[in-house]
Amino acid sequence: MQYGGKRDGSTENDLSLEAELKRRCFWACWASMCIVASPEPYMRHSWSEIARVPLPAIISNTSTGLQVKLTEYMDADWMASRIYGEHDEEELPVAAAMMKMVGVW
Fold first, then answer.
1. Can you name the residues that pair with 66 across neighbouring β-strands?
2. CA-CA distances (angstroms) from residue 74 to 54, 55, 63, 67?
C-alpha cells in the first residue's frame, strides 16, 4: 500500500481539509490491511512504507473555518515523533491513537 503523498513531504504536510480526509482514508485502508494480514514480516514492511505519514490530525472549528493541525507521525520502527517539533500537551485525536494501537497490535 502506497501513500499518495510525495516522499519530500510536500503533500504529506498539506493542511487543507481535503488532504486530511485523504490521509484519514489512507489510514483506514492501512488499518484494514493490518487487521487481515498477520505475518510479522509483512507488518514490519508496512511500517516502513508509511513512515513519516502524518497520523490523523486535529480538526478544529475556528472563526475563519475549519483548521487542520498535524500532531505526530510514526517512524519505520513505530516510534512517534511530533511534527514541527511541537511540544504542547494537546491530546491526539482518537483516530490517531487507534492507528498507533493497530500498529502495535
1. 61
2. 8, 8, 31, 22
Q: Give a yes or no: residue 95 inside a domain.
A: yes
Q: What is the domain extent for residue 23? A: 17-104
Q: Which of 3, 21, 4 is nearest to 68 (CA)?
A: 21
Q: How many domains does the chain have?
A: 1
Gap between the Cα atoms of 87 and 75, Å rounded: 18
Q: Name residues of the chain where pLDDT drops below 70.
A: 1-12, 37-47, 85-89, 105
What's this model's pTM, rounded to 2 decimal places?
Answer: 0.73
CA–CA distance, 16 with 9 (Å, rounded to integer): 14
Contact 72, 96 (CB under 8 A): yes
Give the integer Cα–Cα distance in Å for 92 and 58. Answer: 7
